[in-house]
Amino acid sequence: MRKLLIGGNWKMHKGIKETEEFSKVLLNKEIKTEGIDVFIAPPFTSIPTAVEIFKDTGISIGAQNLFWEEEGAYTGEVSSLFLKELGVKWVIIGHSERRNNFFETNEKVRKKVKKALQKDLNVVICIGEKEEEREEGRAKEVVEKQLQEGLLGLEYNPEKLSIAYEPVWAIGTGRTPHPEDAQRMHSIIREILGKKGEEVRIMYGGSVKTNNVGDFLKQGDIDGALIGGASLDPDSFAEIIKIARGI
Ligand code: PEP
Predict the structure, then answer these.
(1) Could you tell me the distance, in angstroms and rounded to a whole number, from the CA of residue 125 to the centre of ligand 1?
(2) Domain holding 86: CATH number?
(3) Which domain range does residue 186 map to?
(4) pTM (two decimals)
(5) I need a labelling partner for 102 at 20 to 30 A (CA). Which of 35, 67, 93, 134 fits?
């Protein structure tokens, strides 16, 4: 049985003060996380604050990116060593915003995944087709290429690596696929992953809110949700966690 995984991707939102404010409200709700895994990925600069506040709460802290080298002349990049030093447990790699705005290729994704796994971080690799690719009937081909090239030659423990299927046209738009269409894609992704696919957790991401998360999580091959906008509001993030625990 795969444990449900709920992740909040704050993107470039919430500095230290707002992280403190969010956490105060969330923790006041005395949310329970037993039986599921929950992480929040704040911006790098808010990570130390978040790690401190969420210590022993059942909510782990993730990063939204890392670099594949550990040290050196790589201006502006962040090493896996520094993330480990802060107490980071999760890392999101290959989010579509990084692929599209910062030219992150499948090869770069693979190098980052390799380093993150080497450092015993829990990895979430984001994949998903763009709207035009979907319209051209190429969604499966696109995710297959992202997976095959992103994982090429990598040995991994399926407990440490999760996939987030995030159709790009659904991210931040309020539009979502029908949960059964998402389920079909998750099942295809599981097949592409082969034997390990049975154990790998595949999250759905793209405009997940309190009013639709239950319908996604009820699907047999949807093992969690990666949440952008709705994770910024402590009330809705707490409600999503509560719904996930009830599935
Ligand atoms: C995301 O950023 O991964 C995401 C799914 O965003 P949103 O929930 O806002 O669509």
Answers:
(1) 14
(2) 3.20.20.70
(3) 5-246
(4) 0.98
(5) 134
